Amino acid sequence: xxxxxxxxxxxxxxxxxxxxxxxxxxxxxxxxxxxxxxxxxxxxxxxxxxxxxxxxxxxxxxxxxxxxxxxxxxxxxxxxxxxxxxxxxxxxxxxxxxxxxxxxxxxxxxxxxxxxxxxxxxxxxx
Length: 126
Prior knowledge:
Pfam family, one: ASRT
Mean pLDDT: 83
Helix content: under 10%
CATH superfamily: TM1070-like
CATH topology: Hypothetical Protein Tm1070, Chain: A
Number of domains: 1
InterPro entries: ASRT (IPR009794), TM1070-like_sf (IPR036698)
CATH architecture: Sandwich
CATH class: Mainly Beta
Shape: elongated
Largest sheet: 8 strands, antiparallel
Structural class: mainly beta
Protein name: Sensory rhodopsin transducer
Number of strands: 8
Order of helices and strands: EEEEEEEE
């Protein structure tokens, strides 16, 4: 068995999806993405909870990352239990049954000069 790398809990404190953007869709749709890496030999079952500044958390959103694979999940595409609201600040917590690595990426295309940022999430096994 391959020894997995990563953590079982991850947090992204920052999140915001603009409601509009410039350029052709879907490539230049403003979005937030969680990039998840599963280096283990088994499926990673991941539950995502979304936190807001002015209402109760929403979730869990459930995704599976296959063994020895990566999944780039746009928050824009999450719909169950409800879509992530646009133009709203939020944060997210990921809980996985096997260690994974989570990275956060944002494409903000509200200006014709697009901005892309990426950062590693905060990981914990606690």
